[in-house]
Fold these 2 entries.
Entry 1:
Amino acid sequence: MKQKQIYIILGAIGFILLLFWIVVFTLVIKNLRGSNETGESPVVEATLCDEGASDLCVVNFGANSLNRMVIHFQLPSEGYAAFYVKATNRETVSVYTCEVDESVPTNAYCTGLRTPLGETIDLEVYTTDEDKLIARGTFLVSAIAISTPISLPSESPVEEVLPEELPTEEFFTEEVPTEEFATEVPFSEEEPTLLPEGESTPEPVSPNP
C-alpha cells in the first residue's frame, strides 16, 4: 500500500510539473506571436551612409538660405514610415521636420536648428503616427554643404550703339571726251611777219553796230 501511495504521489507531482512547463511554453509562444503581429522593429543605429547601407542613414549635413540645418537622410526603401527628428546639441533639444523628396522617394530632408561646425549632435528618429523611436545616432558635424541659389541668366552688357555712319557721298566725275571740246587750231606753214622796231601790232577795230 505504501508503495502504491508513493507512486501516486510521484505521478501527481510529475503531472503538475508537466502542466507547469506546458503553460510556460504556451506563454512564450504567445509573446513571440504577439511581437511578430505588431511588427515592432528594434531601434536602428543610424550612421553615415556608405556603399552597402541598407538601413536609415545620414548622407550629409547642409544649410539653407535661412541659415537652418538640413539633414539629408537615405531611406531603406520607398514608402518608408513618416518620421521626425529630435536633435540634441549643448543640452538643447530641437525638433526637425522631415519631408520626402518627391523626385527621389528614397531621400528625405529634415530641417531645424543649425549646429556649429566641429560639434557633435545626437539624433533620435521618431515615427509621426505612433511617436515611436526607430533610430538613433551621434554625429560630428565636420562639414556643412551650403545650398547655392539658382543662378539666373546673366544680363549681357549693354553695348553702346553708335549712330550709323552716314554713307559718304561719292562724287563721280564724268570724263568729258576731249574730242568734243577740243578746238582744232589750224596749222599754218607761213612764217610770221616781222615788224620793224618801234611799231606795235595794230589793234583790231570792232565794226560799228
Entry 2:
Amino acid sequence: MKKLMLLLFICCLFLKLNAQQQQNHDFNSNNPTSDSIYVLKSDTSYTTFKYPMQFNSFIQVKVHSLKKLFQNAAKEKKTISLFLEGIEMNDIVPIGMDKSKEVLFFILHRNNRTMNQWKILRLILQEKKNKELTVSIGLNGEEAYPSTLQLPAELSRNSDYYLAFFSYSFAIIVFSFLVKRSNALREQRHNDLDGYSLSKTLFAFWFFIILFSFVFLLSAINSFPHVTVSVIVLFLIPLTSSLIALAGNDTRQLSRNRTAQVSAIDFPRDIVSDAQGINIFRLQLILFTLFTGYYFVSSVITEMMFPVFDTYFLVLFGFSHFIYLTFIFWANKKKL
C-alpha cells in the first residue's frame, strides 16, 4: 500500500512539473525577446482597421523591431513582403512607413503574379466564419514572422454581383440596339435589307465585353484594372479577322427573300449561314467565341480582374478565326 501511495505521489509530482514547464514555454512564446520581430495591431489612430480589407485597400502593419527587420533585409539582400494567412503576396511591398510608430504601409494591389494567391485567399474566406485574415510580413522567399494581427476581409460582395448583372445587361441592350436599330453590323451598311456580317458581329461582341468588363472592374475596385497582355491579344485576333474578312469582300447572296420588316430570326440565321444554308466554318467560330466569352465574363466576375489566357488557348482561338478566313477566300475564289 505504501509503495502504491509513493508511486501515485511521484506521478502527481511529475505531472505538476510537466504542466509548469509547459506554462513557462507558453509564456516565453507569447513574450518574445526585445529584439524579436513580430507583428502587432497598430494603434487606433489608423482608422483603416475599422473597415474590411478589399482589393486595393490601404493597410498598416505595426512591426516590433522594425529596425532589425530592415537590417535583416539588407543583410540577405531580400525585399520585405506582405503575408496573408501565411501566404506570401508577390510584389506587395511596403510603399512607406512611420518609423516613430514602427508601422509599414501596404496597398493590396493585384497583378498576374498575385492572381493565384488571391484565388487561395478567396477559398479560405469562404470556409472561415469570421471572415478574417492573419496579416504578417516577412522576407521574400522566407516564412512570415509571428503575428497577432487579424483584419476582416471582404473580397466578394453581393453588390459586386448586382453591379456585374447591370453592367453586362446594359451591354446586351446596346448590342441588341445595334442589331435592330442600326445597320452597323450589316454587310452593306447603307442597305436595310442586306445580311448581317459575322466578322463585324464578332468584333462588336468582344468590344462590348471588354469595355463593360473594364467599367465593371473600375466601379467595383475603385481603381483602373490591370489589362493583361492575353486580353489585348484576344481582342486583336477578332479585330484582325474582321479587317481581313472585310478586305476579302465577305458578302453572300442569301437564298431567301428579304422584306423591309426585319425578322427576329434574321440575325442568327445570317451570321451562321451562307447561300447553301448553315455553314460549319461559321458555326465553329461562333461556338468557340461564345464559349470564350462565357469564360471571360465569369472570370471577371469571380476573380475581379481580367483573366490570363494560356498561350495554347490563344493559338487555338486564332486558328478558329484562320479556318473561317480560309473559307471566305476559298469561297470567293470559287465564285471567280
